[in-house]
Amino acid sequence: MEFLTGVKQTENVGIREILDILEGDGEGGLIKVSGAVHNIRDMGEVAFVILRKAEGLVQCVYEEGKTEFKLKDLKEESAVEVTGTAVLEERAPQGFEIRLKTVKVLSEPDQVLPMAVSKYKLHTSLEARLAVRPVSLRNVRERAKFKIQEGIVRGFRDFLHDQGFTEIHTPKIVARGAEGGSNVFRLDYFNKKAELGQSPQFYKQTMVGVYDRVFEVAPVFRAEKHNTTRHLNEYIGLDFEMGYIDGFEDVMAMETGFLQYTMELLKREYGKELDMLQTVLPDVSRIPAVRFDRAKELVSEKYSRRIKNPYDLEPEEELLIGRYFKEEYGSDFVFVTHYPSKKRPFYAMDDPEDSKFTLSFDLLFKGLEVTTGGQRIHDYQELLAKMEKRRMDPEDIASYLMIFKYGMPPHGGLGIGLERLTMRLLDEQNVREASLFPRDVNRLEP
């Protein structure tokens, strides 16, 4: 009889452990390291074998006659386990190198790589990279993007936990989308009509009545036939909802706090990736807020642009609003508040001073909407009245309306598009650059 008692200890060491070992006398004795062969630079009697590990690249030195392995038998992208002596070397990627004694090949590729992932930059089109995504993601710069994205999600979770939020997990197969409309993926669910969720909106509002403050990190599905640089049909939503608010400004303040926390986290723990991608973190010490109608006026006046649509922001307007607040206030972010009621969902609370507008907002980052949020209607009769005005049948969403029948506190929340936020942070030009395996109108694989 065997019993498992916890994580199995391994002889293999990582980069951090090697650096800890070398802090003493600069030499680490015989160590064992595993990784993928990222690159081989043969200099004759000496060769540099670069291993790729989760934490980064490790330089290994192969010496003819000293390393018990034939260099010609080693291929790039082979998985290997090596032993050797670690010594300090300031010119190496991590500040040390491993003088190889043995190399054990665990597996090797059957074919030549479709692109040179060991190059610092992949000089290929985005489409070419996406076609062989499992391979192109091994490039160090491609990997760096998603380490930074990890930091954003980590910041979201850690910050909200600190603020008393509870993480929840809501269903993605639903009877009806929260946003309505025709942009839904319909399913045959055991001979019943179902959809892939456009938003966790109904469920996160429900859970405010349970935990007061909740958040979720999960996929969101939109069946929109867009083929633009800013749209995906499946993306990751960073959603939160908070109860007992004084106004929608509390939600904006919470998002500002999240951004401040996350930028500090990225600066502190993701500096290597930021440097690799030459990313300059934005100043989020203060974020301006402007009313929707005033934002349109400011852009129209400064850039001589006629206001074409008084009820929504066109992509060009968003860019100009971003440009305006960068030029006038040095801010890459701006909250645009009080969107017209006709352009917001039925559950958005109308402004009591002017019901043509709502107590809602978008957050623009370098001229791109990355967040939509606001205060929700929490009174049952008020919700029914607004639905009646929009000719909506309460029976269609009876399970959602149930929560308001039995009392709900004033509450509000938001949804952040993770890929859009990452895209803007890294100054990428296409949202697909910030998605591991993007899903759009043309792509379902890999």
Report on this model:
The protein is α+β, with helices and mostly antiparallel strands and 446 residues long. Helix content is 30%, strand content 27%. The chain is built from twelve helices and 18 strands. The strands form four sheets. An eight-stranded mixed β-sheet has the order 6-10-11-18-17-16-13-12, with helices on both faces. A five-stranded mixed beta barrel has the order 1-2-3-5-4. The two termini are 42 Å apart.
Most strands sheet: 8 strands, mixed
The end-to-end distance, rounded to whole angstroms, is 42 Å
Average per-residue pLDDT, rounded, comes to: 93
Helix content: 25-40%
Could you tell me the number of beta strands? 18
Following the backbone from N to C, one meets helices and strands in this order, namely HEEEEEHHHEEEEHEEHHEHHEEEEEHHEH
Based on helices, strands and strand pairing, what is the structural class? alpha+beta
Tally the helices: what do you get?
12
Segments where pLDDT lies below 50 for 5+ residues? none
Chain oligomer state: single chain
- How does the overall form come out from the CA principal axes? elongated
Beta content comes to 25-35%
Radius of gyration, whole Å: 26 Å
Spatial sequence of strands, sheet with the most strands: 6-10-11-18-17-16-13-12
